[in-house]
Design a protein that fits this description.
The complex is a heterodimer of chains A (521) and B (396).
Chain A: H1 3-98, H2 103-110, H3 114-117, E1 122-128, E2 134-140, H4 144-156, H5 158-165, E3 170-171, H6 177-187, E4 191-199, E5 202-211, H7 220-305, H8 313-344, E6 348-350, E7 352-354, H9 356-373, E8 377-382, E9 389-391, H10 393-410, E10 416-423, E11 427-434, H11 441-444, H12 457-461, H13 468-478, E12 483-488, E13 492-500, E14 511-513
Parallel strand pairs in A: 8-10
Antiparallel strand pairs in A: 1-2, 1-5, 3-4, 4-5, 6-14, 7-9, 10-11, 11-13, 12-13
Chain B: E1 3-10, H1 15-30, E2 37-43, H2 48-59, E3 63-69, E4 71-74, E5 78-79, E6 83-90, E7 94-100, H3 108-121, E8 130-136, H4 143-153, E9 159-164, E10 175-177, E11 180-182, E12 186-192, E13 198-203, E14 207-219, E15 222-226, E16 229-230, H5 233-239, H6 245-248, H7 253-257, E17 260-263, E18 270-273, E19 275-278, E20 284-286, E21 295-300, H8 303-321, E22 328-334, H9 335-341, H10 346-356, E23 362-367, E24 370-373, E25 383-386, E26 390-395
Parallel strand pairs in B: 2-3, 8-9, 22-23
Antiparallel strand pairs in B: 1-6, 2-6, 3-10, 4-5, 4-23, 7-12, 8-12, 9-24, 10-11, 13-26, 14-15, 14-21, 15-16, 15-20, 17-18, 17-21, 19-20, 22-26, 24-25
Classes of the chains: A alpha+beta (521), B alpha+beta (396).
Chain lengths: 521, 396
């Protein structure tokens, strides 16, 4: 090839190479620029990623804090929930068992889902019997065989029994390891509470609750809760036993009272029968006596009148005595007949409104000779607002005559008898007060008995039947009133009696049958 | 066309007495000679056989199912002890029932399939409205059974269920089926009607807490690692020493109150999983399956959120009923909620009644896990086994 051409070729090559080189240079430059830019971007991205990772990590750290706090809160909440549920169940259980005094019912009420509401799958209530042997009263979550085994093992575990007897509770949270493992093994649980049921007489039983699930652990709060429940059970059982004792005593007492009441009712019936017989006897005898007595008195009067011829004074004197004694006898028989009639209900009371003052004055007139004989002052004291009383006048006058007559008899000369009447709420109160010798307290209760006569000098000197006060009592009671006496020896006696303000049925002419509920007594 | 409903309940200590009282109350309310269906819900304090015999003796129903429960929910009360009996006599609803036993040894797919097919076979009509089932809550992973049930019924069919429980004792749950009581089993009830409508609501109210993490290794219901670290590390990070309780006892307080929340790709709600236990290597065992690579959060709930969730669930039910008046309300509520709500648990029932009606017969139970789809008011989605949820279902 020509050198010039060769040179030209070389020049072209150089140019081409230069162009290519320049192009390559530019391209590399652009690429380097791009690379630098991309590297920057990657670095920025990396930085961003690092920032994000850091943020995520920070977030995660915060999340760890949150989750730990949340866990604590959940634990606290769970414990609180458990406590609240426990307290709620405890309150329910306590209320249920404290509202019965029947031991069987207490166990029946405990044998409700309440025990499991307290959150335990295994429950036992073991009680000591009279022979100090443990018996199962309530169980859930155990088989019969397991219970027999547990009872036999507990009998052997003297140390455990002693500790329980001293009031110690055991639980999977607070017991020493060895003891805890023994109990866990015996009851086949992982968490438990074992607490004694104590009363003033000592340990009467044991409460056990437990869980096999490790998710349901117990806390010291649970232990306290079950101690309270066991105490509550102990108290309720003690109350039930006390009540049972009281109840039995009452039953015995009631049975004795019933027995005695029966005996008394029987005796009362007997007395009634006897009294009736007596009344009938007195009535019959009195009637039988009165007929011949009337003849005796009639003949004595006839002889005394001289119609049968003159009689010597000695005979006349004797006849007068016969007459007088006959009169006394007739009076006694009449009194007896009256009492008998009133008691048997055969006497009828014709009630009429009667002014107390008039009646008292009438009595004063009747008894004036006796009063004058002993110079006894008779005082009538009737309150101005005393209403008329509804009485059978003839019968009621006999009450006054008997009582004032008695007062006259036992009041020494120059004494005083006060007869008063005053209105009370439902009745009129009458009283006859004397300044006589008085009556011994022991005699006061017997005064109104038939034929009863107080032992004193006056009674020894003066004859009497002992029927006057009894008759007065019968008449007052036939008017629905009451009679009683108060006395002080040496100072005097007061007889009181009442008459209702209104007659039965408010009928002024009411006829009251005199049969009383206890007429026979 | 009428449906008669009677609900009885008793807390008597003696099983026979409690069951007799509950059945008698139900009979008194229903006032019908022929009982088509009885559902028994009883807490673990009672002998299931005795309860079953006593209820059958009084009501003698054509079909009977039931379950053990940790608590009974009624219109008037919530009780952690008792026997509740629901009796239905209806000429507008047909019932079909089924049972699958020996769930721990049987192939779960087979068990779920036969459960669903037997329920359908027990119906006279090919129509169906909803499927309710009770499954042993102690079975380690219920998800395969649930999946196979769904295979039979389809994804847009309402499947509702509850895990039978023994109140977290983890020993034995039971299910009632006709004249037998079963363990380690599932019993189901299918409803068919041309006239009724079923409303369904399902909510929990728990909220995610802290930064999101990812499940990096999972085997069915066992979460091996989260963010490539042992799964239990999540709880240890948050709770320190306290997290040991997850190992020492099944379903500890931490597990109940702070479940794992799994964000599902096709759902807006977090699927909650209680860690049932923690294995030696730090793997966390859940009651149901957990998807791999899913975003997971520690979840936190409170009483107010729970009440709000119950109310929202009831509102979904109302929407689902499409203006029909509810005749009966079922509530299946995870026991975890009861542990959180404590004494205030009944507030949820009050809110539900406020929305669905105070006079509507209501029966429910506290269970170990609920089974229900999310977003039930607009469309029925895939059914999930869930923890901490309240499922409200009403027949209108």
């Amino acid at each position: 090839m020509h050198p010039i051409l060769k040179l030209l070729d070389n020049i072209n090559l150089i140019n081409v190479m230069g162009v290519v080189g320049a192009f390559l240079f530019m391209t590399v430059g652009i690429l380097i620029t791009l690379l630098i830019r991309k590297t920057d971007e990657v670095n920025q991205q990396k930085e961003l990623l690092n920032k994000m990772t850091r943020s995520f990590n920070d977030l995660d750290e915060q999340a760890k804090l949150i989750v730990k706090t949340d866990l604590e809160l959940n634990k606290a909440q769970e414990e609180l929930d458990k406590r609240l549920s426990g307290l709620n169940s405890l309150q329910k259980t306590s209320r249920l068992i404290s509202t019965t005094l029947d031991e069987e019912e207490i166990f029946h009420r405990l044998d409700q889902p309440l025990m499991s509401e307290l959150g335990f799958e295994k429950n036992l209530i073991l009680m000591y019997d009279a022979d100090k042997k443990l018996h199962c009263r309530i169980e859930s979550g155990f088989s019969k065989e397991e219970i027999i085994y547990i009872l036999s093992q507990l009998e052997k575990e003297r140390a455990l029994a002693t500790a329980l007897r001293e009031g110690h509770s055991f639980s999977s949270v607070s017991s020493p390891k060895v003891r805890k493992e023994k109990i866990m093994q015996l009851f086949d649980v992982e968490h438990f509470i074992l607490t004694p049921i104590l009363t003033q007489e000592g340990m009467i039983g044991i409460v056990f609750v437990g869980n096999r699930s490790s998710a349901s652990s117990v806390t010291e709060g649970d232990e306290e809760l079950f101690s309270i429940l066991a105490n509550q059970i102990g108290q309720s059982l003690e109350n039930a036993q006390l009540f049972e004792q009281v109840y039995r005593s009452r039953q015995e007492l009631e049975s004795k009272i019933q027995e005695r009441t029966k005996q008394l009712a029987f005796a009362l019936e007997e007395v009634k029968k006897i009294s009736k017989t007596k009344t009938e006897f007195i009535s019959a005898v009195s009637h039988e006596l009165r007929t011949p007595l009337t003849s005796i008195k009639g003949y004595a009067s006839l002889l005394l009148s001289g119609k049968m011829g003159a009689i010597p004074p000695e005979v006349k004197d004797r006849l007068a005595k016969i007459n007088k004694h006959s009169d006394n006898l007739v009076k006694m028989i009449n009194d007896l007949l009256d009492i008998s009639r009133i008691e048997s209900g055969r006497a009828e009371m014709h009630l009429l409104p009667t002014q107390a003052e008039a009646m008292i004055e009438n009595v004063r007139d009747l008894l004036t000779p006796q009063l004058k004989e002993k110079n006894i002052q008779f005082v009538s004291s009737v309150a101005p607002d005393t209403p008329p009383v509804f009485v059978d006048r003839s019968q009621f006058e006999r009450v006054f005559i008997n009582l004032v007559g008695n007062a006259t008899k036992f009041t020494p000369e120059n004494g005083r008898i006060t007869v008063s009447a005053s209105p009370e709420k439902n009745h009129v109160l009458f009283s006859i007060t004397d300044t006589g010798i008085g009556i011994n307290e022991n005699d006061l209760g017997k005064l109104f008995n038939e034929f009863y006569r107080v032992e004193n000098e006056i009674n020894q000197q003066l004859k009497g039947t002992g029927l006057g006060l009894s008759l007065a009592k019968n008449i007052v009671e036939a008017h629905q009133g009451k009679i009683w006496a108060a006395s002080q020896l040496g100072k005097g006696t007061t007889f009181y009696f009442t008459i209702p303000r209104q007659p039965p049925g408010k009928d002024t002419t009411t006829v009251i049958p005199t049969q009383k509920p206890d007429a026979g007594i | 066309m009428a449906t008669h409903i009677g609900i009885g309940f008793s807390q008597e200590v003696n099983t026979a007495l409690a069951a007799t009282k509950a059945a008698s109350q139900a009979q008194e309310q229903i006032q019908q000679d022929n009982i088509d269906l009885v559902i028994i819900l009883s807490t673990i304090h009672y002998s299931p056989l005795e309860a079953l015999l006593s209820v059958r003796k009084i009501l003698n129903p054509l079909r009977l199912v039931g379950s053990s429960a940790a608590g009974i929910i009624l219109a008037e009360l919530i009780s952690l002890r008792g026997i509740a009996v629901l009796a239905i006599s209806s000429d507008e609803i047909n019932f079909g029932i089924c049972a699958a036993t020996s769930l721990d040894t049987q192939d779960p797919r087979e068990a779920g399939n036969s459960l669903a097919r037997n329920a359908i076979a027990d119906l006279d009509q090919p129509r169906r409205q909803a499927f309710i089932f009770f499954i042993d809550g102690l079975i380690k992973n219920n998800s395969p059974i649930l999946k196979s049930i769904q295979e039979v019924f389809g994804n847009i069919f309402p499947i509702v269920g509850a895990g039978s429980t023994d109140d977290f004792h983890f020993r034995k749950t039971f299910q009632y089926y006709q004249d037998r009581y079963l363990v380690n089993s599932a019993v189901g009830l299918i409803l068919d009607s041309a006239t009724i409508r079923v409303g369904l609501g399902n909510k929990h109210g728990w909220k995610p807490l802290g930064k999101p993490r990812f499940i990096t290794h999972v085997e069915g219901n066992i979460i091996r690692t989260i963010d490539h670290k042992k799964a239990s590390g999540l709880y240890e990070e948050y709770f320190g020493e306290e997290a040991q309780s997850l190992r020492s006892a099944p379903m500890s307080r931490l597990a109940i109150l702070y479940p794992l929340g799994i964000r599902l790709a096709d759902e807006h709600e977090y699927l909650l999983r209680n860690p049932v236990s923690v294995l030696h290597d730090g793997s966390v065992v859940c009651q149901g399956e957990v998807p791999e690579q899913a975003q997971v959060h520690l979840m936190i709930g409170n009483k107010d959120a729970c009440r709000q969730a119950a109310m929202n669930a009831a509102k979904e039910v109302k929407e689902g009923l499409g203006g029909k008046t509810p005749k009966l309300i079922f509530i299946f509520e995870d026991l975890g909620r009861q542990k959180l709500m404590g004494r205030g648990a009944f507030a949820e029932v009050t809110l539900i009644k406020q929305i669905l009606g105070y006079d509507v017969p209501l029966i429910g139970m506290y269970c170990h896990g609920t089974i229900s789809p999310f977003r039930t008011s607009q469309s029925i989605h895939r059914t999930h086994l869930q923890n901490e949820n309240i499922v409200v279902m009403a027949i209108g």
